[in-house]
Structure formats: structure tokens, C-alpha cells
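Memo to structure team: turn this sequence into C-alpha cells by end of day. - J.P.
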Amino acid sequence: MTSADAVVIGGGVIGASVAYHLAGKGMRHVVVLERDRLGSGSTAKNAGGIRLQFSSEINVRLSLRSLPRFERFEDEFGVDIAFRQAGYLFLITETGDAAAFERSLALWERLEVPARRVERPEIAEIFPELVTEDVLFGTFCAKDGHADPHSILRGFVARGRERGVEFREGSPARGIEVSGGRVVAVRGGDERIETGVVIDAAGPWGAGVAKLAGVDLPIAPLRRHIFVTQRVPGFDREIPLTIEFATGLYMHRESGGVLLGMGDPKDGPGFDDSVNWDFLPEIVGRALARLPILERTSVRTGWAGFYEDTPDKHPVLGPAGPDGFYAAAGFSGHGVMHAPAAGELLAELVCDGRASLDLRPFRASRFAEGDVVPEHNVI
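Reply from structure team:
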């Protein structure tokens, strides 16, 4: 039997960030339990997008706190995360989405987010190869971009270890002991770890971990596909991360080719992360219609991973049941980009009793209370 100041369940980028920040607040023995390998879940399958362009104020504020950390990540963590601020370009093609993005533009102006509305002539200047005849308008933010999720994780883990964090791979959480309404221990692998603080950072498996503490969290795994092309002859320059919002198709530069991502609308919740190659023609068809120059290349590889989806597309971040049990899960595909802020804020909450940003919109009880604020700008 051992003891720890805190046990973090989940060794992805959220769990690593939480552990790093807990240690930075003075916790001397933080243990991270990872059932497989560090980063082998959603972190490894993530497209690496980092953006300010969300529709809810709380999500925008998470991004505003995280973005500067990514911009100076190498200075803080000593790791180059290949952060390319090529911008995010949303393409709005349906009138039903136009009003929501107009509201977002007003929110961004109020919060001093440097995003703007762009009409078709300016879209053609930003990304001339795109087909835009059906585009009503777009939104663009040059501060947005994409980075390497594995390198982000590597930075948190390396600096976390320097602060004394113990990362245990191949150590699934098998039970959470609760006594007198509070957490007292975790059974991790074959060991019992006495602790008064447990953080559920298990991503798509977050609901299962919460059940170990007798807590129901509405977090569901949703499969998302990514394919990467070979190099496209005559198309070598940088492009913004571009999202065809109505279909959820997105694309950005990757390994000399173009990364294409999209969710299969026929997929329901589940833990099947195999690649459905029958879905590839649908993605390719949409991509060719939007970016015809892709006809010069072919798909090189593909994979599938999970969004950790909640009903309102916001995470559960904060206390979530018995005293000492916290959740940092349900980021609905945006855990990597919000990891710096989420880890910092949760560490403040655990160690100081309050966070420097109001986390009530992320409380676990909001679903039962019917007090949710849906995030519109997700795909």
C-alpha cells in the first residue's frame, strides 16, 4: 500500500497537464495512472487544432488562457510543439448557421479575440484554391493554428517528472474507495493508493472511471476519422486549418500532404476505433468538391479516434461527486487545445479552494439542473 497527495486517472494531455500544475502548486506526490501507454488514447489521434473561435464565452476564455502558453511552450517546457499559426478559416454555407456565427463575431469583438468576418473575395485571397460559390461568408483568426499533440504531452510529462510526478503506464484504475462521503483510496493496477484527491482525466473513458466513484457523467465516445494525403504537386504552401462547418470536413497541412478529418454521421457512441474505409469515399468526395487540387494526390494513411462528447459540448471540470473527486473530462474534441488552462484552473481549485476563472458553467450538476449552454462551433 502507498499513499499520494493526488491520483490522476488518465495519461493523456489533460491528465499530464493537471498533474504538472498540481505539482507546481506544491503537491509533493502526484501519481498518474494510465491503463495503456501515455497519450495512447485521444491525444495520439488528435488533429492538433488550437483556436479561439468558440461560441460560448467560457470556451473562448479557456482558449485565451491556453493560447499564450502554446506560443511560448518551448520556453516553458523545452519542447518544440511545431505550433504553426496559419489561422482557422470557418466556411459558412447554410443560413441556419449564419446567425450563430454572427453572434460569435459579436462575442469575439467583446472579448478582443482577433477574429473577423471574411467575404468570398477575401477568402479567395487567404486560400485561393478553395471553391467558394456556395459560401455565405467565413470567419478567420490568424492567431489560431495547429500543433503536434504528442510533443505537447511530452512537454507536460517531462516537466511533471522534474516536479516529482509519478507516471505509471499499464496501470488501470480498478476501483475508487469512498468512505463517509469522501474519497479515501484508489486501486490502481495491483496496488491500493491512499489519497484524498482523485481526478478523472480519462477522456472518452471518463464516464467509466466516474462510475468507480458512484458518479454518473454524461460523457460518450464518438469516433472521428482522419486521413492524410501524399504530397500534392504544385501545392506546397501553408494553408489555414479550414472547416466546412455544415459537413464538419476540416483540413490542414500535415507531413507534406493534407490532413482531412470528418465524422461519420451514421456513427453512434461506442469504443470502436477501427478505420471504416467505406467512409473514405464520402470524405474524399467532400474534400474534392471544396478543394479540387486534391485530385493530384492520393490518401497515404488514415486512423480513427474518439471525441469525449457531452450533451452541451463543454467539459466537466471541477468537483463531481464525493468530496475529493474531481473531473477533467468531456472536452468534446478540444482537450488538447484547452489543456494548459484546464490543468492550471483545476490545480487552483484543488489546492486553493477556488479557481481564477469561474468554472460553474462546467459543473457536473448542470445536466440534471437543465442549466447548459451549448457550444455551437464544434464539428
